[in-house]
Amino acid sequence: MKFLCAVVLLFAAIAFAAAGDLEDELSWQSYKAQFQKKHHPKDEARRKANFIKRQRQIEKHNKENKEWEMGNNQFSDMTDEERQALLGAKPVIRKERSFNPAFPIEDRVLPISIDYRSDKCMQPVKQQADCGSCWSFATVVPLEFNTCKKTGTPVALSEQMLVDCDPYNYGCDGGDYTNAWKFIKEKGGIMINSSYPYVSGTTKTSGTCKFSSTSVAARVSTYGWTMPYPNATVSMQYLQDHGPLPSAMRVLDSLYQYKTGVYSDAACILADENLVDHAVVIVGYGTTTTTPAIPYWIVRNSWGTTWGNLGYMAIKRGVNMCNIESWTAYVDVI
């Protein structure tokens, strides 16, 4: 009888394992179709293993965390090294920023929420692809927005010009948005995207600078860091007065699979504010209607619309999550 029970349990275990393997295979095939993934046969097993590992992480997180949700995206089958290559924020250190004057915190009533996502001056979310050029996308967003506010006409500007031409930054190897504004101001402006389209995600390297003053579509007036920092109220004031604010943040493994909700991670409350590696843009703020209510920033990424909430995310506000409140900056245009 004991032998019979053991045999039954063995067959049940085999059947269970087979069912699990079949479910993983079906999920893998569905994922590849959804995100148009085509792998070399020799690379298929490794990519599938990466996907299954991330799928388990997603399932565990979504079961345990109710504030924000994970989901599959273009990163689910990537290696850790490939995902790290997308990070390219190299902002100037705090010592250099300390020379900028700090403006007093104004005693005024701020809007309950700001959301620039649907503003006609906000360009569609873009995709930096396989290049650490996040800094160039963070540089361009406020220039596009503020130029449109001045002229009344939406404009798309060239990230590739910065990747190819900016001597103060490092192309696909990273950079700083304030240095990029410095370059744009010295150069006399930044070109329109249609005259200098983005290709770094496909070529993986920066090319020869093809700047032409005849295609300049925006010019920098003034720029700087929001001061004092980190201070959520100050950033909210600047957001209202100067439009979208680029910032830098630390990217933990959990962020790659973010889908929706207010992102937070206990491991991203950092003692060292210089621990940042990715440039993003704060385009609004608000507070959830949940109990307890959670204040959040609305953040625009440059990882395409299949990441997060159509390329955007919400991240907890007022706690300097991932150092995002230490690196906000503003720019005005001519």
UniProtKB/TrEMBL annotation:
<dbReference type="InterPro" id="IPR025661">
    <property type="entry name" value="Pept_asp_AS"/>
</dbReference>
<dbReference type="InterPro" id="IPR000668">
    <property type="entry name" value="Peptidase_C1A_C"/>
</dbReference>
<feature type="domain" description="Peptidase C1A papain C-terminal">
    <location>
        <begin position="110"/>
        <end position="332"/>
    </location>
</feature>
<dbReference type="InterPro" id="IPR038765">
    <property type="entry name" value="Papain-like_cys_pep_sf"/>
</dbReference>
<protein>
    <submittedName>
        <fullName>Uncharacterized protein</fullName>
    </submittedName>
</protein>
<keyword id="KW-0865">Zymogen</keyword>
<dbReference type="GO" id="GO:0008234">
    <property type="term" value="F:cysteine-type peptidase activity"/>
</dbReference>
<dbReference type="Pfam" id="PF00112">
    <property type="entry name" value="Peptidase_C1"/>
</dbReference>
<comment type="similarity">
    <text>Belongs to the peptidase C1 family.</text>
</comment>
<feature type="signal peptide">
    <location>
        <begin position="1"/>
        <end position="19"/>
    </location>
</feature>
<dbReference type="InterPro" id="IPR013201">
    <property type="entry name" value="Prot_inhib_I29"/>
</dbReference>
<keyword id="KW-0732">Signal</keyword>
<feature type="domain" description="Cathepsin propeptide inhibitor">
    <location>
        <begin position="28"/>
        <end position="83"/>
    </location>
</feature>
<dbReference type="GO" id="GO:0006508">
    <property type="term" value="P:proteolysis"/>
</dbReference>
<keyword id="KW-1015">Disulfide bond</keyword>
<keyword id="KW-0645">Protease</keyword>
<dbReference type="InterPro" id="IPR013128">
    <property type="entry name" value="Peptidase_C1A"/>
</dbReference>
<keyword id="KW-0788">Thiol protease</keyword>
<keyword id="KW-0378">Hydrolase</keyword>
<dbReference type="Pfam" id="PF08246">
    <property type="entry name" value="Inhibitor_I29"/>
</dbReference>
<dbReference type="InterPro" id="IPR025660">
    <property type="entry name" value="Pept_his_AS"/>
</dbReference>
<dbReference type="InterPro" id="IPR000169">
    <property type="entry name" value="Pept_cys_AS"/>
</dbReference>
<dbReference type="InterPro" id="IPR039417">
    <property type="entry name" value="Peptidase_C1A_papain-like"/>
</dbReference>
